[in-house]
Specification:
21 strands, D-Amino Acid Oxidase, Chain A, domain 2, ten-stranded mixed beta sheet, 535 residues, Helicase, Ruva Protein, domain 3, alpha+beta
Length: 535
Amino acid sequence: MTAEVPPLPTRREELIARLAEPHQYDIAIVGGGATGLGVALDAAARGFSVVLLESHDFAKGTSSRSTKLVHGGVRYLAQGNISLVREALRERATLLANARYLAQPLAFVMPSYKWWEILFYGIGLTMYDALAGKAGLGHTEFLSRAQTLALLPTAQPQGLKGGIKYWDGQFNDARLALALARTAAVRGALLVNYCCATDLFYEGGKVAGLMCEDSLTGQSYRIQSRCVVNAAGVWVDELRQKDGAANRADGRRPTKPMVAPSQGVHIVVDREFLGAETALMVPKTADGRVLFAVPWLGKVILGTTDTPRHDLAREPLPFKEEIDFILTESARYLRRAPTRADVKSVWVGLRPLVKPQEDDGDNTKGLSREHTVLVSRSGLVTVTGGKWTTYRAMAEDVLSECAAKSLIENRTAGVTVHLKLIGADEAGAEIHSISQPPGIHSYGNEQSKVMSLPGAQTVLCAGLTEAMVRFAARYEYAVHVEDVLARRSRLLFLDARLASSLAAQVGEILFQETGLDPEVAAFAELAQHYLRLPE
């Protein structure tokens, strides 16, 4: 199945006009990250009427701040969680098949400085291959010292014994989220960014819909829906608390938080520090954490950390010790160690780790160690946890639980297994490597549509043209400069200084297209945030 259809316009006034129309939806979704967008696409593909509301921009939070890996989870294999690894490997293959211009195989090399590491990790990765079966991307190989340095020319040669090469995948997370949103829209779903769900309303003690507010105008709307899915990531507890407060007359205990946020920090440096299209992976650093050096869009991502965080800031800052960890550990494995002066951008994502839930009257169903679906007494469905790789399986689990609670009809699952996302091309056209700098290839089979717009030959910087900005405004829900420079293109994540220098130009084009405030000054301030390294 393919999504090769003309792109739908995403003009703000038309989206809001649809939102204002009286209508009872089958499913209303709160949250426009990987999970919410996956549910929206699956539900729309099954023929349900769907509305999705995102308080900021699609993938503004965790879903644009991943390590850019589509993976089965080698660490879960070490923990003995075979079923989880098998599911993730299956979903990895599905994702790569359905959006191959946004997700592709990537070779990883583990350099080994102790002889036992080669055998130990090699056996584990051979099992990884076996679990993948026909969905495998390539065979694990044992490498000599010379072969390791050929694949990782900037690896630290001193003490190097050899290495192991294995395969996983990488992707462009924010653009994949956008592809999910646009594919769902093609199938009839209404998706509105910058529209915040403010409250729930009830009929007979059951959730019957929600109230929302257009963040750009302050106008409120009442949305009726048979089922409300809370997919707000690390922020799901906010709506759960409102649901609990509305139903506390029966003497129930206060709603307990289900998310314990964990912070992941990533640093971006120039390609020369890795010097290859092969990723470097260290499975166990000095303090037991994993370290990656991943080529991505012409740069290299170093990370990541895993640090508990007790606030839910939209733009969290890295901790000094996290920056120190990444730079110090990178120096152990790279011939030339990057310093703070070499950092092009640093971003922080909050991961929604799920707390164990006691029985407080809610019906809780943990569908895997990775994600959890909870249905409250009033019928509010909450999903959180998980990872990008398994977004599609998570969506199926959510709809299965909604049907089991008679919130929606029980319709046939599996409709998204072979559903190509918008932009996917089945004709075998050339696929540009995600390791290389971005450009027109990021649009898949929509390249000709982008090139037909005014400004196709007006280059703002390498990989970004005036036409791309116009396409973002007309067809990709872009409202603000940040939407374009952070998520439609990935420039803020690749080079924050360069992104800041383009804010005024991009803002002018956006204003021509939308007539809305592109928030140029706000973006300039945000770009400085992506350059801030605590000393």
